[in-house]
Fold these 4 entries.
Entry 1:
Amino acid sequence: MKSDKLVLVATICDHYSLELPFFDQLDHHGMVEIVQVGQDPYIKENQLSILEKVIRIHHDLQVNLDGVAVILDLVDRIELLQQENRNLRRQIRVY
Amino acid sequence: MDYIDYYEVLAVPKNADIKEIKKAYRRLARKHHPDLHPNDDNAKKKFQQINEAHTVLSDPEKRAKYDKYGKDWEHAEAYEEAARQQQQYRKSQGAGGFGRTGTRGQYSGEDFSEFFNTMFGGQAGFGGFEREVRYKGQDYHATLSLNLSDVYQTQKHTLSVNGKSIRITIPAGVNDEQVIKIKGHGGAGVNGGPKGDLFIKFAINNNSSFHRDGKDLYKNIDLDLYTAVLGGDKIINTFDGKKVKLKVSPGTQNGAKVKLSGKGFPEYKKEGTFGDLIITFNIKIPSTLSAREKELFQELAKLKGQ
């Protein structure tokens, strides 16, 4: 289900001890979309999980945001390949 | 519940220094981080062990306790009680316990092993971030249009925001484009977080003959030539509709200003304090004269040698 709830970026910054320019970079890399409401930037609630994933990889593995973007892209491709692999296995079973 | 050898998990010797421990953690975290292994439960379990081992061994205090009590965890009950009391004390001092603390909020112990929870009382969660993050709800922004005469006195208004009626007090003297915050009347919080706030911006329409600049009011008043020359009284209507008798000095010039102290606009949130009313005289020269008037003006001109 699509969620249109917005979360104030300032609140997230406060919670995770992040700086506002970090979100500009996330937006620049196309990882998280910033929604401007009046003068305040927000992100959609349904993007919180991806944001947390970015923060985890960035912090736990000390990977810069370019690297995180590449990792997320590769992980997406792994998931697609895993799905394709499962489908192919099912087809093999049928024959 | 089994004893966990954290040194073995990180594959480091018992005398490994903090650099070696961090290096081993990074190497293994890169290899087993669950975000890099979608749909792989084994990676998640492995990373939890690595994270747990790193949490203990990278903290000198915790590592010392682990080294001292780890193998004898069955007898650690007394220690656990002491540690709990110590933790209570730390909390009262404003510092956190083990793991990440402060604004990062609440943690669940479920991501760590039973062994860890027995030893350390249940601390930071996987990856150091809480799962149920609480966020403040969305702030709402609204514009309220009022006439200048509406904000001359403090009054209550009922607004309808997202189907809910909110009764607010608008203090006298509120300014055009001023924004006031009504706390907790925005969108609902996420995961039990606080509600957002409602921001109301005022659009003040000047429906009066006065010009307003903050708490001061300005008005142009027409003054007949004879009163300007000879002096006299002039009745002025103030903003609140009251009449004030103004003494006009003889020889008043066109554009002359008179200040009526305390007859201006109320000052915002300063009950009973008013600005000034500044009157500018606009002297009207007669455009049509009777024959007699013309004759008298000519006589005046002769007297002045013109």
Entry 2:
Amino acid sequence: MTCEHCRDLFSPLVDGELGVDARAVVEAHLAACAGCREELERFRRTVASLQGLGPERAPLGFVDRVLAAAHPAPWHRRLATRLFRPLRVMVPLQAMAALLVAGLALYVYQRNPEMQQAARHEAPAPTLPPGRSQEGAPASAPSPGASLERAPAPAGDAPAPPAARAAPEVSAARPGAASVNREQDSTGSQDGKDAWRDAAPAQGRRAKEPAVPSPAKPDVGPSQRATESKPPERDAAALGARRDGELIGAPAPAPWAAPVGPLTPVPARPPAPPVGTLTPVPAAPTAPAPVAPSVSAPAAPTAPPPAAPPAPAPPAPLAPSLGAPPASPPASPPADRPAGSAKGRTSAAAGPSARRETAVAESPPSAAPAPPGPLAKQRQEKAASQESTLAVASADATARLRVAEPTAADRALAELLRRVGATEISRRSEAGDTLVELAVPGERWPALRDGLGRLGRLDLEREPAQLPARLTLRLRISS
Amino acid sequence: VTEGGFEESPDLLDRLRAGDAQAFETLVSGYQHRVFGVALRILGNRAEAEDVAQEVFLRVHRSVAAFRGEARLSTWLYGITSRLCLTRLASPGSRQARLSEPVKDDTARDPGDPAASAERGELGTALAAAIAALPEERRIVVILRDVEGLSYEEIATALDLEPGTVRSRLHRARMEIKDRLEPFLT
């Protein structure tokens, strides 16, 4: 064995991997070779040094990191982390998105007048006279009379459609008209849904009546309208007829068309036919428009007070009436109000009372009311209490009837009303009493008063000095 | 089975195959220092060694179900570590990082005799430098054999080499180290 061959076997020799025979040969050579023995000694020390190397230690937290990497969090936790962990980024982003959406909505709202109109319709109108809330009821229930009434309107009068189209400009251009428009908005549409529902037929109607020129400018202001040379009663009659038609006709005009529509047909319109029989809406006793008191009264078939005096109502008061707050209380007691003076009143001052009168006049008990739709019925019921309150407050006469037996008194009262031709307008309970509003022809008032006196103890608190053609009585029945 | 102070339970492999998280934690805790040490001695860079060691255990976690168990679990771990280290050494970025960090041997720290400690410190540094100077294939073999204590057969299995190749590589590695340590061996 050579020294080179011997040194090649140092590793197996040191590691004990050398066979017995090879080991014997190597040991024999080492015994005879001092150089190989020294080399083997250095080799052993080298291996010993290698094997003496201390163990390295993994860094702290190594196990946790490996486990975290090997067992990631559940998907929902990772998702939540991704979504919400960078709150510094996500919160401002979400806030900016919300602001952007709000800004866009506001921008679109401001740029689109129809949306503003709709918002106005949908918003509750605090100044809305309660009676007007019933206006939409007949609109959804067309009556044949209404269509008959409406038929001549476009032919002879200024057509409502152009005025209706101009209505938004009116409200935008003139403050006075704006008030009218606002009132009409709140009046013509009891709720936004009806307004929108009715808007489509109205627009369709306008499309069908485009050829009729409008003698009255759509943007005519209240004062301008008031100075028109047409007799007010004719004006009122025409307006009333038109208004009735709009009230009762199936296609109610768009809410923004209401203010100007009734006013435009004034010049050429012939005296309105008695529409009372054609507007059988006892449940909708209120005039819808601010000018309704002066409008619908002459149209009543039962000789309503406004129709009696031929003297035209002064137009000047009409103008402020359009801008006056509709919810202001009646200015004058019914006793001081002559029948014809209702025309000269401002609609706001005479508002509920006049409307009540009008409604009473236009809705005789014998007239068959057009069946209101479900929606209209709900609105009627909803506004019934407020309606009665305002109407009763403006009654021509007030009385208190104390009876021993309320049930029997009710039956007797019904018989009495039938006998004298009176009508029960509303009834409600108040503080244990029954508050009844009655309407009776003026000439039958003594009979009614005497009859009531026979039912119980009657205290007449207020009585009209001059009997109107139709008298309203507020009667409180207590036991 | 005892492996460097770690008591490897007989059913550890079965539990690992069953996806037992506790078994995996036991495996990582028991082999972390050895796997990291091998990687550090091969790569010469602690950060890279930690990355490789973590990747070793993740691979074990992912593929333990496919491990047939023909070799010891530690042998399988060393094989994965060696291959990953060779792959890492082949990347240029890793080589640059390795060259920027000189290899030091922690065995030089000895609170005993200062003179002996200094001598051992010098020897340790020289030894670490000698190991680092070895070709990678020889370095791995000498580390697995002399530092980690694997048998020739285990090294051949881990590195998928013939036993004769392991023997020759080991011998050459040792001889080269001996030559580099000649000043400390006289």
Entry 3:
Amino acid sequence: VSLKNDIYNSILLSHSSEEGTNYGEIKNPDYFFSSLNRLCGDEVEFYLILKNNLIEKISYKAKGCAICKASASILASHLHSKKLTEAIFLLEHFIDSMKLENTVLDLSNELNSLLAIKTLPSRIRCVLLSWDLLQKELKIIQNQTKETI
Amino acid sequence: MNGKPLVFLDSAASSQKPFQVIDAIEKYYREENANIHRGVYYLSQNATELYERARIKISDFIGAKCAKVIIYTRNATESINLVAQTWGRENIGRGDEIVLNELEHHSNIVPWQMLAKEKSAVLKYIPLNPDSTLNLENLDEIITYKTKLVVCSQMSNATGTIHTIKPIIQKAHEKGALFLLDGAQGACHLKINVKDLDVDFYVFSAHKMLGPTGLGILYGKEEILEKMPPWMGGGDMISEVHLNHSTYAELPARLEAGTPHISGPIAFTYALDYLESVGMDAIHEHEVDLVRYGIEKLQKMPGITLYGTNDLSKRGGIISFNVNGVHPHDVGSILDEQGIAIRVGHHCCQPFMRKMQIAGTCRASFYLYNTKEEIDALIKGLYQVLNIFSRVAKK
């Protein structure tokens, strides 16, 4: 309950604004992904430039509630300059942490402020819209690169 | 709730229940439990008596002429589906028209879409005015001799608009069409007389009017119900069953297959007694009073958009609004932290939200037990929302 009182904290709110470092489109991205929750209208877009399996550039656009927008921003900032394998590792473990009782990872303050939303079951999907999308898409990229090797 | 006193402003979704109703359910299961209509022993006969007496009470409550035109279902949605799947399948054909409107609840759109698809029928919609009242200007072009059925809610669950239905009912009957009135938000707040309204079907749910969940009502004019084929087959709805054919029971049993929610109607009678003891006119007046008070307060707040008509004579106990720049779900979560329960989202009215170009609204809905102090708590909670989100704006 103590977590619950501070869900709309300064970290989350600052990430929900559209002035974050990773907000906006990348021209000619290597990859573009989008996802929409039809039930509430939350919508996220991600733009990626990938060099040698390294996420060199990532940006996002998000429409919807503050939690959805903050989650997309925090995710983008955490994936920036990560290797594909590291990115997938983080995605999987954070999604698990959101769904399971105990967290297994030492998380940054930003990820912890997202994790606090676990206390609002109806809002978990607002957090995970971006994470589920990128987990699915990055795994596809990983499998494709394996095949080409 | 969350360490704060609960402020429950979501009765349009489902009302709270008085002790009388809760006690009646408990008493049934503790002392009166038996299946109905078949036993020759006391308990079964008594349960049957209570269950059927409830039907009389319900028919009196809505001014129906007799109890057999009251059909028990699970909820108002099932009542609408029953009409679509029985009367609709028999009477709607290729090119026939069903008239709805743009503010209807999904439960009064989707069953007709399904029927229209099956029968190659056509759906037409009465458009809305900007204040979410129905625009009846072109009713002559919308309701025509091709129209077989017109459906409308009595009051919108999304905006609280009480629709002006009389001219629509008259027009429907003038063109030989039937009229179904969805009273899910009507029967709980307004005095009802189905004979005076001259509706052909009336549907509502017990759980929105102090009663238990799992009980819906379908009223139909006797001559129409008499001609409707059975819907679900099974026990209770038959007269005789042979290996190759069956004959069906009289109304209302013909439309009620299987063991029903016996305690539902029994407990519901206590809800109706409760409502009658307060008086439906007094309830409506109280709710409009709360809406007037709430709207005045909200209009004084910065950054609030209100939906629905300003004409309070066309409104029930609902205020639909948005905090500008803040998603309704965020408003709902912040209010929840303060023990305030409102509904946020599209309220099962996606076509309306699309028309308004919004993801959803915040909806505070009131019932006989709500108070002005609770509206004050809501306003205080909304200032908290503004406060939290102004911190972002300032950065």
Entry 4:
Amino acid sequence: MPPFSPERWRALSPYLDEALGITSDRRAGWIAAIAAHDLTLAADLAALLAEHEELKASHFLERLPDWPTPKLID
Amino acid sequence: MNQHENVGPDDLFGSLYADLRGLARRELKRQPSFADLGVTSVLHQAYLKLAAGGGAIFADRPQFVAYTARVMRGLIIDEIRRRQSQKRGGLFHLTALATQHEHDLADPRAMMQLNDALDALATVDPDLAEIIELKFFRGISFAEIAAIRGVSERTVRRDWDKGRLYLHHALSSEPAGGRDAAVLA
């Protein structure tokens, strides 16, 4: 999925507000309802919600990173 | 805080010094590589940047705290840039990367990319960017952010998730292919 354009983010934003407020088990039905009238929007939202689950599982930004030690010159 | 309404940075800085000192100490504790900057040094640099802004007036305490948080993030990023520049200076500095101190410095490139993505988010959705800044860079709790912004903690948590999603997506879409989002986890 390519980076968001500002316009795309603004279009997706209100849907994300709604999606992040409902439980995971209800999201499939919610996506299906959107797909009935806008397949592209539904696909983008499904991808983003999957990414949201991924970032939650990896605790993204929840603590300072354990970054690798920089390497010396080859 | 009504008594702070419509006053300049000199007055606000003095009255909020204790708050800011706590923020700076927390920031330096979270980023031990920067501990040698010193809490007082960070605060004074923040003040100088505020004062150099030309007599900025803040409507209220939340606006001032948020602004100061941005200044402090800038100071940390400036320090990363300065140290990166030093490391590029020669073999002696590169050899020094093997020390434990430099391990704490972590991967500056990932932090710089996060900083850029946060700037981009600020142009699209400044409220989300501010929440990320207060939570990640400043370490302020959801409850405190909710109090500062006058919204519910639930709203703050939702916006935090939304902001993180924007940043994760932006970092994962970088040409490097997502490594930088991974190292921030």
